[in-house]
Amino acid sequence: MFMSFFVAILFELVRQRNIKKVFASVKAFWDGMGKVFASVITLIVAAEVFSKGLISLGFIDALVMASQHLGFSGIGIAILMTLLIFAASMLMGSGNASFFSFGPLVPSIAAKVGLSEASMILPMQLASSMGRAASPIAGVIIAISEIAGVSSFDLARRNLIPLSVTMVFMLVYHFFIIG
Fold first, then answer.
1. How many Cβ atoms are within 10 Å of 64's Cβ, its own excluded?
2. Nearest to 113 by CA among 84, 80, 87, 85
3. Alpha carbons 28 and 34: distance in angstroms, whole number
4. pLDDT tens across 86-125, in order?
5. Are 126 and 170 contacting, i.e. CB atoms less than 8 angstroms apart?
6. What are phi and psi of 107, to 5 degrees?
7. What is the pLDDT of residues 2-21, one digit of tens each?
8. Cβ(38)–Cβ(46) under 8 Å?
9. Residue 120 and residue 79: Cα distance in Å, rounded?
10. Which residues are CB-neighbours of 8 under 8 A, at least 6 positions away?
11. For position 13, what pLDDT does the model report?
12. What is the DSSP string of the chain?
């Protein structure tokens, strides 16, 4: 990305032949990147606090015990966590926020139910991205709906069916075919 950035600066210097104008446009790039990073870092910190709160409240133990009491296997608990992260991404409008909220819980849950951490976290990561694409408050959905001239709720609703089918296929393929 930075190599492309420097190439773009060189081309802008050739095109405009005014170093002040070029660096003024570069300042806009850095300002925009700073705003985006600030929101991302805020989401990550909030997600980490949320995750530590869940751990300290005994969420992991309660989830594992309730799931085992209901007869869920380790795969059942992993599927439940994947669906939970999908729903959280839809509600939050951010795949990162939901993934960073529930991702830190995976090592201790996986150890308690006898699954590998990678086997449990991979579908969760994919589900967080899919949930964002089905959220009417996700930035990308709002931007695309504005460009297309449709409601973000209509776009998210249209995405929900193919994403739900994809979610089922991913879970079946991951846990039962390549399992």
1. 18
2. 80
3. 10
4. 988 888 788 887 888 788 888 888 888 888 999 999 999 9
5. yes
6. -55, -45
7. 899 899 899 999 999 999 98
8. no
9. 8
10. none
11. 93
12. -HHHHHHHHHHHHHHH--HHHHHHHHHHHHHHHHHHHHHHHHHHHHHHHHHHHHHHTTHHHHHHHHHHHTT--HHHHHHHHHHHHHHHHHHHS-HHHHHHHHGGGHHHHHHHHT--HHHHHHHHHHHHHHHHHT-TTSHHHHHHHHHHTS-HHHHHHHHHHHHHHHHHHHHHIIIII--
Place of tokens 């409601």: 151
Burial class (CB within 10 angstroms; exposed 0-12, middle 13-18, buried 19+) of 87: middle
* Tokens (6 digits) for 138: 């996700």
Average pLDDT, the chain: 85
44 to 2, 104, 174: CA distances (angstroms): 23, 11, 27
pLDDT band at 68 (very low <50, low <70, confident <90, very high): confident
A 10 A CB-CB count for 13 gives 14
Summarize the confidence of residues 164-179 as an average pLDDT: 91
Q: What is the chain's length?
A: 179
pTM of the prediction?
0.68
* Distance in angstroms (rounded) separating the CA atoms of residues 80 and 124: 10
